[in-house]
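Module 6 notes. Inverse folding takes a fixed backbone as the condition and produces residue identities as the prediction. Think of it as a translation problem where the source language is geometry and the target language is the twenty amino acids. Below is one complete input and output pair. Work through it position by position during the lab.
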């Protein structure tokens, strides 16, 4: 292990996992993690789910206990940003005036919420959603309920936040550019399933629709005017229209970019000694031979591990099947696979959408490329996601009839051992 100094720019899951992996792999050199937020690195999924709903305490959010960093001689610098990367000199500049040398650098700068350019976004009660502070503030605003909430954005985060707001007893209206929520991710039939789920809990939809203006009185939000000039009353407006990868450092340093920082399968960028992981990395995936940028926690977790091992000279590639999950009302959903390969394919359903208990498989050339399980009975047929990942990895053709046949165990879908 010839590397003696590693700097990690970014204090999220990818950065913290990389630091943890470096120590677990026996690296004894200097490790510095530079995080822009004042909080210790934390997990983002609970922010729009369990933590937001008060079902998880704040001690469930950190990646590792706060004391881990000092106990493992990791220099954690919070509330500080890396402002420049000098690749030729192998140094970084921080906004506190510090200059640090590195032998390997990991860019784990994540992503920022996409902003909307329309009047009224500066009003009190209007916010985006990304951080622990955002979740704390929104939890206080939503409880005890009875407020008018306008949700702008019909993607996964928008739908999760709408579900949380409605669960607290608020009046929720959701705007989205799609005709059907989530249709771009999982297709129209399953998008309608999630819409019906929300409507049964009182959520109203305006689709397709966009916000034209946010209105207010005395600096506080009072409503949202849609593109059809409908005025929706609003005490709270949440904007969740996607995120933008934080590529500023990489761009200024001359690294190759394309919808994020381009990396190889080992997460090395176009500049030797510099790696990227998490939301900001557009990594080559060995399974598809294509670059994929994923904004889900499993990508950050696995990417942090791979980048750490690669920086130590080990052979490591980000070859895991992408995974994410969502919880909305009484629905618990898990998804494994490649949305880009599943796009446009008609899902094969095992189980019942009406009973809210099913698995959806997507195929390309009769091979499973993605699978989504919803409230699947784990006691009766455990390991749905494990089987889905194994089916994807096997690349073995499976008929739609076999996939849909709920009378056969999931393990029977897998090819026989050689």
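Target side of the pair, the amino acids:
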């Amino acid at each position: 292990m010839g590397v003696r100094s590693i700097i990690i720019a970014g204090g999220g899951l990818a950065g913290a996992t990389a630091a943890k992996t470096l120590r677990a792999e026996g690296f004894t050199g200097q490790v510095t993690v530079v995080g822009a937020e004042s909080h210790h690195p934390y997990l983002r999924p609970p922010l729009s789910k369990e933590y937001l709903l008060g079902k998880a305490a704040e001690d469930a959010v950190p990646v590792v206990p706060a004391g881990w960093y000092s106990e493992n001689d990791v220099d954690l610098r919070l509330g500080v940003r890396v402002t420049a990367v000098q690749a030729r000199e192998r140094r970084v500049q921080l906004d506190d005036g510090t200059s640090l040398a590195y032998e390997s650098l990991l860019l784990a700068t994540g992503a920022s919420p996409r902003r909307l350019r329309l009047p009224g976004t500066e009003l009190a009660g209007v916010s985006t959603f990304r951080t622990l502070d955002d979740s704390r503030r929104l939890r206080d605003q939503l409880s005890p309920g009875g407020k008018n909430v306008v949700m702008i954005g019909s993607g996964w985060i928008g739908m999760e936040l709408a579900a949380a707001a409605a669960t607290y007893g608020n009046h929720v209206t959701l705007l989205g550019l799609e005709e059907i929520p989530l249709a771009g991710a999982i297709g129209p039939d399953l998008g309608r399933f999630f819409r019906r789920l929300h409507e049964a809990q009182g959520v109203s939809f305006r689709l397709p629709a966009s916000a034209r203006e946010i209105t207010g009185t005395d600096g506080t939000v009072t409503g949202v005017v849609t593109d059809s000039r409908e005025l929706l009353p609003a005490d709270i407006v949440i904007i969740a229209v996607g995120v933008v990868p934080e590529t500023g450092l990489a761009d200024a340093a001359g690294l190759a970019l394309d919808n994020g920082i381009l990396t190889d399968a080992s997460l090395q960028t176009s500049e030797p000694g510099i790696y990227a992981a998490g939301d900001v990395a557009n990594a080559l995936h060995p399974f598809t031979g294509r670059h994929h940028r994923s904004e889900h926690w499993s990508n950050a977790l696995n990417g942090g591990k791979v980048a750490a091992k690669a920086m130590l000279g080990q052979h490591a590639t980000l070859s895991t099947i992408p995974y994410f999950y969502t919880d909305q009302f009484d629905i618990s959903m898990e998804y494994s696979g490649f949305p880009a390969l599943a796009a446009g394919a008609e899902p094969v359903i095992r189980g019942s959408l009406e009973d809210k208990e099913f698995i959806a498989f997507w195929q390309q050339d009769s091979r499973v490329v993605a699978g989504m399980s919803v409230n699947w009975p784990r006691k009766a047929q455990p390991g749905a996601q494990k089987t889905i990942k194994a089916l994807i990895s096997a690349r073995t053709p499976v008929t739609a009839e076999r996939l849909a046949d709920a009378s056969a165990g999931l393990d029977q879908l897998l090819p026989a051992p050689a």
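Reference fact for the lab report: Residues 297-311 form the longest helix (15 residues).
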